[in-house]
Design brief:
Elements (H helix, E strand, L loop, with lengths): L5 H11 L5 E2 H10 L6 H13 L3 E5 L6 E5 L6 E5 L5 E4 L23 E4 L2 H4 L3
Parallel strand pairs: 4-6
Antiparallel strand pairs: 1-3, 2-3, 4-5
Helix pairs in contact: 2-3
Length: 127
């Protein structure tokens, strides 16, 4: 049983109400909008707690540009994230699904992470 403090509950609700991955900064800004003045370190520790308890998926942007989190769900989603403006786009379908083969024919995949990084149409014009 996971102990849910008031702040954990608020952060969980924020994640539950979004369809896109969020950074800790984005979560903190939403908390501030709700009137919950929380230290950034509290948000980071809560996200680590959620990850340790298998409640969120975590994805690091290349080059230490940030980390994004999304709640784990029965149906999973994949995202493309712009390295410049940080806009997020949902990838339609699962490009991994049944296309992976391993040397072990009986290997059963139970989960995977897949994020694509690049530049959105607005930012690619400038690069």
């Amino acid at each position: 049983m996971v102990r849910m403090t008031r702040i954990r509950r608020l952060i969980y609700e924020i994640l539950k109400d979004t369809t896109m991955p969020l950074s800790c900064l984005e979560v903190r800004n939403k908390l501030l909008e709700m009137g919950a003045d929380v230290f950034p370190s509290t948000v980071y520790r809560t996200m680590e707690f959620f990850e340790e308890n298998n409640m969120v998926l975590k994805a690091d942007l290349p080059g230490s540009l940030g980390t994004y989190y999304i709640l784990k769900e029965d149906s999973h989603k994949h995202f493309a994230i712009c390295l410049n403006c940080k806009k997020k786009f949902e990838i339609k379908g699962c490009p991994v699904s049944d296309t992976i083969e391993t040397e072990d024919e009986n290997f059963k995949i139970t989960s995977h992470k897949f994020m694509v990084f690049g530049y959105c149409s607005d930012c690619s014009k400038n690069n």
